[in-house]
Amino acid sequence: MRHLKAHRKLGRSTEHRISMLRNLATSLINSRDERIITTLPKAKELRPFVERAITLSRRAASLEGNGSEATGLHLRRQAAAFFHSGNFSQAAASGRRGQPRPPRTSGVAALRRLFDEFGERFKDRPGGYTRIIKMGRRAGDGAQLAIIELLGNPREKEAEAATRKRVKGQGKKKAETKAVEKEPEQEEESETEE
Length: 194
Prior knowledge:
Layout: H1 14-30, E1 35-39, H2 40-63, H3 69-80, H4 90-93, H5 106-121, E2 130-137, E3 144-150, H6 154-193
Antiparallel strand pairs: 1-3, 2-3
Helix pairs in contact: 1-5, 2-3, 2-5
């Protein structure tokens, strides 16, 4: 029986599974398009993992005006547990003594972006910050693929803007075609009057 066993194991040990989810979360937050392609079970496991981190950033965004910096810092430190801090570059890792190492960047950048951008974007949204889109099966092993993306991403905004332009353009075209249709009728009426 699987009582109180909520999550998928994904064929990995606990440490490996958590590390994989942190990598996926870091990739999703840092990606330019705010979307990644992965297998469907991984995407389904990643969704609540990332949404908890976004909820922490949302809470911090709502506390900013109250002057509670300690609470905001606490939320930021809690959210840091959802990301890997990043990797040193290979050249710097094998560097000499006394030389400063470059900072670990990927997790820090993800955390900064999470609290600067996404906290404000999802401030009024009570949950459901991600979307999973099924893609079909992978050719090599037949695994079901899926796209997991954040709502309000740049691609979505571009598509919305293009749709608005198209709809506005159609409205003008319809008005123009109606005006063109009415003009010959008016000419016919004036000929019959003479």
